[in-house]
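From the shared-data thread, chain only:
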Amino acid sequence: MTTDDGRRVVITGLGAISCLGTGVDAHWDGLLAGGGTPSEVPLPHLNMRTKRMYLVDRARIPAEPARYAGVELGSSPRLAVAAAEQALVDAGLDGEARAALPVVLGVELGNADMQEIRRSAGDPVWTTQTPAVAVVGARIGSRAALTSVGNACSASGYALTIASDMIRAGEATTVLAGGAEGITRAGLAAFNRLGAADPVRCRPFDRDRAGTMFGDGSAMVVLESASHARERGATAYAELAGTAWSCDAYHPTAPDPSGEQIVRAMTEALADAGLSGSDVGCVIPHGTGTPLNDVVESQALRRMFGERVRELPLFSLKAMIGHTTGAAGAFACLTATLMLRHRRVPANTPVDQDPECAVWLPQEEAVPLGGPAVLVNTYAFGGNNTSLVVKAVDGEGVR
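Structure, as tokens:
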């Protein structure tokens, strides 16, 4: 971490659309109310065991943009555009500020739902797999760098670290970062075939968990150097104070049972932020609901925090909105920011907790946020791990 305000990275804009509704207020209120409920996926030919997701209300998915470069667009890029516009309005960015704005998005399956709908209707032609970042860039009028990250379920965690690095290196003063995912038959089928799709709901750390359950939506944040935010009179929600990556290099889909590399990512993210474990008031775990992942992460948290893990609240976000795959890290970062703003951790969705997952999941009611920082973990196939530290900002210009 550095004390140079030109390299400190603050969060000045937020945007979200998920099963909880549209906008960050709907997101926070939905978390306090206990989260969303899975529903049947509206795609044909779902010849599989698990056919449910935590879905954005289809009536709330914007109709525009309908096409890009001659290609019909599905839900993912349209959700991305909607959340991006919210974040930019929230940050007070328009006109030339948008033209100079780099965009970094984590998107795993992109425009796949439109492809599947067209093929199911008998159209034999595959169209271009349009990157959501290109659609967002065109829609906001950006003439800066556009970067799409595809590191599976940690994609937007990587996107946020790339965006932060751009600001710290002086390559940009402001970056739009986040993730978006729509629904896809291919994604559902893959997890069904792997035996990693829970037919009931997403229930991380539950003794009867049977895999994960997906959710769709988009989360976006505006990252900005602290000095630039101050110069233009912008207010900050929080600081993205530390980031780190690591890789298990162990297995294509399974985590390394030792948890060594996820401990490394958490350790290095806190070091990057100039903080210690005692500064963390909450952890938003990766916590997908797959049996091995939840145990390995629980054990890694115990190694990281020792006996304090018994009194350190975890917030199981995926139990509320499903596993939003490539967008999961962005949703977690946005949620951490709102926790710091409201100084509390919402109650978790009730679970019959697995004794092998010896972590604290407050379930009765919201609890106070007892530290200045929230630690976010995102993991992915291939052992791709990211950890982020979102920290409260002190003094004027805080909202």
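The mean pLDDT is 93.
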